[in-house]
Amino acid sequence: xxxxxxxxxxxxxxxxxxxxxxxxxxxxxxxxxxxxxxxxxxxxxxxxxxxxxxxxxxxxxxxxxxxxxxxxxxxxxxxxxxxxxxxxxxxxxxxxxxxxxxxxxxxxxxxxxxxxxxxxxxxxxxxxxxxxxxxxxxxxxxxxxxxxxxxxxxxxxxxxxxxxxxxxxxxxxxxxxxxxxxxxxxxxxxxxxxxxxxxxxxxxxxxxxxxxxxxxxxxxxxxxxxxxxxxxxxxxxxxxxxxxxxxxxxxxxxxxxxxxxxxxxxxxxxxxxxxxxxxxxxxxxxxxxxxxxxxxxxxxxxxxxxxxxxxxxxxxxxxxxxxxxxxxxxxxxxxxxxxxxxxxxxxxxxxxxxxxxxxxxxxxxxxxxxxxxxxxxxxxxxxxxxxxxxxxxxxxxxxxxxxxxxxxxxxxxxxxxxxxxxxxxxxxxxxxxxxxxxxxxxxxxxxxxxxxxxxxxxxxxxxxxxxxxxxxxxxxxxxxxxxxxxxxxxxxxxxxxxxxxxxxxxxxxxxxxxxxxxxxxxxxxxxxxxxxxxxxxxxxxxxxxxxxxxxxxxxxxxxxxxxxxxxxxxxxxxxxxxxxxxxxxxxxxxxxxxxxxxxxxxxxxxxxxxxxxxxxxxxxxxxxxxxxxxxxxxxxxxxxxxxxxxxxxxxxxxxxxxxxxxxxxxxxxxxxxxxxxxxxxxxxxxxxxxxxxxxxxxxxxxxxxxxxxxxxxxxxxxxxxxxxxxxxxxxxxxxxxxxxxxxxxxxxxxxxxxxxxxxxxxxxxxxxxxxxxxxxxxxxxxxxxxxxxxxxxxxxxxxxxxxxxxxxxxxxxxxxxxxxxxxxxxxxxxxxxxxxxxxxxxxxxxxxxxxxxxxxxxxxxxxxxxxxxxxxxxxxxxxxxxxxxxxxxxxxxxxxxxxxxxxxxxxxxxxxxxxxxxxxxxxxxxxxxxxxxxxxxxxxxxxxxxxxxxxxxxxxxxxxxxxxxxxxxxxxxxxxxxxxxxxxxxxxxxxxxxxxxxxxxxxxxxxxxxxxxxxxxxxxxxxxxxxxxxxxxxxxxxxxxxxxxxxxxxxxxxxxxxxxxxxxxxxxxx
Amino acid sequence: xxxxxxxxxxxxxxxxxxxxxxxxxxxxxxxxxxxxxxxxxxxxxxxxxxxxxxxxxxxxxxxxxxxxxxxxxxxxxxxxxxxxxxxxxxxxxxxxxxxxxxxxxxxxxxxxxxxxxxxxxxxxxxxxxxxxxxxxxxxxxxxxxxxxxxxxxxxxxxxxxxxxxxxxxxxxxxxxxxxxxxxxxxxxxxxxxxxxxxxxxxxxxxxxxxxxxxxxxxxxxxxxxxxxxxxxxxxxxxxxxxxxxxxxxxxxxxxxxxxxxxxxxxxxxxxxxxxxxxxxxxxxxxxxxxxxxxxxxxxxxxxxxxxxxxxxxxxxxxxxxxxxxxxxxxxxxxxxxxxxxxxxxxxxxxxxxxxxxxxxxxxxxxxxxxxxxxxxxxxxxxxxxxxxxxxxxxxxxxxxxxxxxxxxxxxxxxxxxxxxxxxxxxxxxxxxxxxxxxxxxxxxxxxxxxxxxxxxxxxxxxxxxxxxxxxxxxxxxxxxxxxxxxxxxxxxxxxxxxxxxxxxxxxxxxxxxxxxxxx
Lengths: 1070, 519
Prior knowledge:
- The structure holds 2 protein chains of 2 kinds.
- By secondary structure, chain A is an alpha/beta fold.
- Chain A is about 45% helix and about 15% strand.
- Chain A is built from 42 helices and 24 strands.
- Chain A is globular, with a radius of gyration of 33 Å.
- In chain A, about 50% of the residues are buried.
- By secondary structure, chain B is α+β, with helices and mostly antiparallel strands.
- In chain B, helix 1 packs across helix 4 and helix 12 runs antiparallel to helix 13.
């Protein structure tokens, strides 16, 4: 008779368990346990992972949860005189799922009380609710958190008996097991003796469990650290909150049999109960909602009609008969497949969201593999013509895959996206739609900070440690805790420091808490709460499911991603600003294609603020790619990705693009597929097509190949498919070398490659952003600034870049600025009226929106006459807000000869009440005895108060001194010959260490004329790590490289320079 | 009205140097904090010039060559500060403690009221120089400033090196050149003033008075006045101390009497110098030697205390040293000495009349004295009330200071409370337990071997895994024949009594003990 652990908790009990469900399963397998039940606190968060892991190793996974219940009193707590006496929590009932009804009941029960909770993790079910949902569930009396322990400790044996009788009344006699656990604790043993007596008296079965909270004994240390994090205390002072010993790990049948040698039936009952628990997550019972169609229509016929309507609009106007015919065939093929796979409902639901967005004038565009579908294009879901661009439909949908297709929708971030999300909630009901969760796990920084706190290290040291821990992609050989610890002066030979380091490593990737995914929504036919428990999200009006998007996908739940894209919001703002201030209509769908000056700008890599092409790496490759048409931009978006870089495709493509290398194909048969990308595979679709041509794969098989090689690799699956690929290629007469080359390409691509359709969707937005920036700079900059944070650069850099492009940017002023940045008219040097930008009040640090709006509305009545008038009419303005407004010069226009210091002087008095006696007397503001701010003081105030300055760049003030040191300006660099030793200096606006760059660090330095790029090799970075990471202004010396108009300095020396104390910002390691 | 201020720059360093004069003029840095959090706590000018800064970690600071490292000794700082106050008392009976700053937990200034002292000691300038000289006699390098107000004198002493005498009416001018921080103005005012572009006291003082009240209120006005050198806060005089103390933490343990006498001499000289200032003599001298423990796991300090009452009150350090030498030769410390504390009581005995109608409860002062005496006898930290600690570790308790308990009604003993009591053996009895098939069978202890008749356990506890004091133990409750049987007549041997014991195994040391017996 084998023992089954029926009461184990994972780290998904959030800080109350220390192992991942996968680790529990693998340990259970090692111990030869036939099954394991995961009973996490108030949720089934870890069940999908347990299910998947258990399935793969042949352990039976049982589902369950500990449900907090009121009516049985609170958990047995610590004695009140103890220092760590926290408020008690209600007892928890361990419930195990016996049948599908039981699972649905458990989900509904938890949803019911979770949605009621005001504070995360505080919800409790009433006994009536438990009774209502008891069918199909088996109840245990629990360990120290359970009813039995609480009753015995609080009121004694009789109360315990009464409460167990209550449970048998609710669940039925055969569904209540009296639980006994043994963790070498005398108090627990006393409880066990009472439990055995109770079981005998009430004729209930005994059940032995180990109440496991971790897979192996040493993980007790992690649980102790978690306990400290949960209770905000240190290990030193946590006392009895910590574990008594390390006995709560998984045990083998032999160990348990020996431990319960006096109660053999308690062991026997585990396998008997396990046999009863027939339910697994394989029978989830999820069904996608059916779209309501008019009478006489089926979903298929309705979808066909909508597609046909859209098809005419999309392809009819193109006046290209060949395309029209091809597209028609493609749509037919897709519709037939959709019909066959019964996916019409899904397409209609997405179409419905698009329709709603169009009605509400919300900019929306589908991206991802959906852009491969002509049906999606016809329905208006995507904006790229897949037939015209010869995109591969199978990447999106295939018969073989048996999975839901993935449609991601880009929406303007902020309110508009929220509107779309709320529409889905309304349409499918609060219990029919929810956001997917995002499991927040411990990473380097969070682990270092929280473990450090638990071990009692001081905040200052932890801050220093955090500042050297990289959060970027690249982890060089020195990017480990060992080095970081040494950098902050920790002695790793000290046992406590060593423990700290070791715990930081061990805690990595364990769940910390549940967040909300940025846009993934799941919907369900009927009640979603019977499929997965729902919880309220922090944002009001939203609910989240307990599983993250991968778990949802594993469980076959379909998801629609409603993603917020800052650039979409900026584009939407442009659509409003341009007609208003330039008097020109604008339609993003009708932008002139291939506008030469736009491409000229792109070729110059003058792309600050443009979508997807503004990063340093993009800028470095743009002059080499030299785009002249839209497809070049599609390639540009896709090429700076780990796939092409790891697969070593970028350089061959660039060389071929520049004519430095001949276009060649691995095999002539691949020419049609790779022709557009000069023989170099750059997109996932090409990989699929290569497999189809070279090895006669069907579309579905090819997609299966991509997945097998992708992130979730399975050796066995990979070998099988690779063998098939090789045999196909051999059949088609591919030489072994060619086969090898193709397989290498496929392997590196499957992991990181970018779908062409996705690149095309992004390229559309990139082109639109480039076009708008070039032609409508004021509107575009205002829109960008109004939708921050987004993109790669800080507002200060965006403003400076716009100024370099000739835009006049006016500072914040209480008489002119609105909450958002606005466009004004002003005359240029030639006396011509041109649009200029006024920075909005929302850039004033600490100014509340409601106050700013009150200020604007008061101003609209009649202008403010002075500071006193402003303070009187907008009493909501707090002193700190007034001080910041004065400091940044926003009050200068309120009086004659008023400068920032005068305003500060006056504000200080105006903000201080004179008292009731003198209130009625109008005061005359005298001029201040204070000196005007110096340039440096103005800069410091501007950056401190608004994060930017509209005045001269800080580097302007020291240019003369720098010129003497032969420091070149960014604009001088194109004239410096390649290979010359050069000096540059500037404000660090970006630090990057991409995962693909082998530890190289890229710095962008901004001066008054533009941006210079610096490359720091890994060895040099180690030497100057602190300077590079912490200094705001740097002087860099090194050899200038000018390759194909891509200019950078290969640093050989990095020095900090003192330019200003202003708090400039940089974009680091993202 | 005139006030003088004595300020000791880098007091934690000077507190060390005054008892180790060979460090004078050398770069010295003070470390503080338990490893691994050791940081540089203070540095002297010489070390600062080499680039060592406070707040550096030990690893970072060790990169600098030629620095003398010492551990921080709060006791030495306290005695050094007491010596500084003594210097002040040589001139005036009205001496005020300097305030401690937010970022430091020690005081480094002493302010004294020198009004009327001119006739006794000469001009303010002479007084200032005298103060500096007296301070240098007890080993301090000080800044002394004389000004019309206490705070002005403190600001000047901290702001200017050497002796500064600010003539009446020139306070504003002299203090004006100091930064706002030197005035110790609250942070929020400094922030506002800096926004106004005012960085020095003079800048601040130059602003109009009414405008300051309008903007910064009455508190602002107070600081404004101070920036002008006008201060209206009175001096709060400190009471004269009843005893004098010196303390020295030794760098390395001293195990020979001769070098120890060398250290004792230094302390005695300092004490005599201080007493000389007050024309007092030593009535009693208590020397507390902290000893080095052999057992590093036991953190409890070990002391060797000698109290000496000279037959005649004396202030001659050589004479007193001789007495000490004789005493220590007779009662030498058993282990090497790591720190020396010397406490002297001046001879003036205090007399106190008890109230006629006061109840006969222990007089708090007498109680304190009694407690102190008990402490002197049994050792420091060995007198108090035990309080249980919140930990799974068995029998962990801390000692709180003993206070007279309030009279409480005795609780009636209910049935629930009558549980078996464990009588603990202190120390636990070393033992051995034999096992068969995982069950304890025999107990061997104190030469006896007993069959285990019944048992319960193991009760396992493991804790403090993150530190060097990690512990783990398995406890068993066992029934065996009594280990220490009472002597009984031969006839009753057969029916010998059994008893319940608690035995435990220290899992780290892998040793068994009998912990106690259940009543």
